[in-house]
Amino acid sequence: MKRNAVIAILRLFQFIAFAEGGLLPSILLVAIFNWVTGRGHLLVAIIGATHGTVFTIYLLLVPIVARLLHWPAKTISIAFSVAFVPFATWGFERRIRPEIFGKLNNSED
Q: Is residue 106's pLDDT more than 80?
């Protein structure tokens, strides 16, 4: 795979992991606000749709990044699991960041 494609995929994964980590608690907070006040239906719909899209992209990127970084099954399982826990993708991305930078620095044209 070309270096630019590898860089783009890994950077996209980092961005999506960050977005997923923040959108999950956001939708939970907005949904609670909506439940308590009866207001915010549109905001719930917008954040919910955004979260669903980002969540799906994250899940689709995991196997691609796993192949690029040669992850064992345990790491792949963790990558999928953290998508269901608020803020957990942030910690996971931080944990694999050295692998990402190593791959970015060593990828060939």
A: no
Residue type, 5: A
CA pair distance 37, 84, nearest whole angstrom: 26
Average of per-residue pLDDT values in the chain: 92
Spatial separation of the C-alpha atoms in residues 35 and 43, rounded to whole Å: 12
Q: Determine contact, residues 20/58, Cβ cutoff 8 Å.
A: yes
**Residue 65's CB: how many other CB atoms inside 10 A?**
25
* Residue whose C-alpha is closest to residue 99's, from 10, 8, 37, 5: 10
Query: Can you give the pLDDT at residue 72?
Result: 96
Contact 75, 45 (CB under 8 A): no
Element holding 97 (H helix, E strand)? helix 88-106
Q: What is the mean pLDDT of residues 30-35?
A: 94
Nearest C-alpha neighbor of 26 from the set 37, 40, 12? 40
